[in-house]
Design brief:
2 copies of one chain form a homodimer.
Chain A: H1 6-16, H2 23-35, H3 38-54, E1 56-57, E2 64-65, H4 71-74, E3 82-86, H5 89-98, E4 104-107, H6 125-134, E5 139-142, H7 148-160, E6 167-170, H8 186-194
Parallel strand pairs in A: 3-4, 3-5, 5-6
Antiparallel strand pairs in A: 1-2
Helix pairs in contact in A: 1-2
């Protein structure tokens, strides 16, 4: 728009590329960033650059860390015979929040997806297989998302691990706690009935 | 959380301060920013720093610009006898989008608000009065928001401009186009009836 200065327009264009940020949000954010005081602006740029510089993948589980290995892999009190396989570092955080699991993790950094052209070489599957060959692992829990891509990834890896003769399990499907039966989809309800347990 | 690296946590903390960005959105944005390629990251930091360096207020209308004066004040084809007074640079964009107004603007950079401690000295009111004293202005359109603060600001300025004996007008109130009468509030409907026009 002719009434907007070019540097401001460029900043809005940049922010529009961000996930879940539309044109209106990008505008609001740009004005906020312009109005920030000098210290806050510096703090933000520093945090941005520092995170990009220092954060990389843990050399064991491929979760994100600023050390050689991540705090979970370093924690000797955790069960070192179980690996929970997730697609994304955020899934590690979600499972940690549940405070139910005390084993190790392996982060794939994505799901297999022929549609989006994601092949096994692009995920940290090789690293997982290597760990199972090297470490004393008894169980691998497949905790990829309950989506088509997540299922494909879980079953691909579970086949790959067959030669090791270890237990490979999958997270239970069912109705979410606090959810409403009326709105549960057929497939979830079917899984929920199949997996019913004695009270 | 123990499973997250400190630099990542700091980046999330920074993003959480942004308007309308909650914890979950800040997390998602932080992971996106980490995963950006080097060129995109540089483009963003450059756009951010350039906008903050170069953007300042137009010396005439106080809208944001990277030049001494803004494109609207420079545009000699516009009606130079009318000033539309708005609270925010985004309001200039909104009115320009309507393509109905062809005069000049004046951006106050806020509304008077005793509640939030915003007094006349913090707004660009002095600059507006100076313009009306210096320039050949025939009409001032008060286009502050139809909120309590916007109303207070509009009536404060309109009183201030009385000595100049120019026309001071206010945007019309009424039902928004495409809106639903059923959901219109009483005050809007009352204004809409009062302001009815012949068909």
């Amino acid at each position: 728009m002719a009434c907007m200065a070019a540097p401001l327009e460029r900043l809005i264009e940049q922010l529009e590329k961000w996930p879940a940020i539309g044109h209106k949000s990008a505008q609001r954010l740009a004005f906020y960033l312009l109005g920030m005081n000098e210290k806050n602006a510096k703090d933000f740029v520093n945090a941005f650059c520092e995170a990009r510089e220092k954060i990389h993948e843990c050399s064991i589980c491929c979760n994100l860390t600023d050390k050689e290995t991540c705090p979970i892999c370093d924690d000797q009190t955790r069960d070192r015979h179980t690996i929970c396989v997730v697609a994304d570092p955020r899934d590690v955080m979600a499972i940690e929040r549940a405070r139910e699991y005390h084993g190790l993790y392996h982060v794939l950094h994505g799901n297999l997806s022929p549609m989006d052209g994601v092949s096994p070489e692009q995920l940290r599957i090789k690293e997982l297989v290597q760990r199972i060959a090297d470490e004393d692992i008894e169980e691998v829990i497949m905790a990829t998302n309950p989506t088509v891509d997540g299922e494909v990834t879980a079953s691909y890896i579970s086949k790959l691990l067959q030669p090791f003769e270890i237990k490979v399990t999958r997270l239970a499907y069912g109705i979410p706690v606090g959810g409403d039966l009326e709105y549960a989809d057929d497939v979830t309800l079917r899984h929920s009935l199949e997996g019913r347990s004695k009270m």
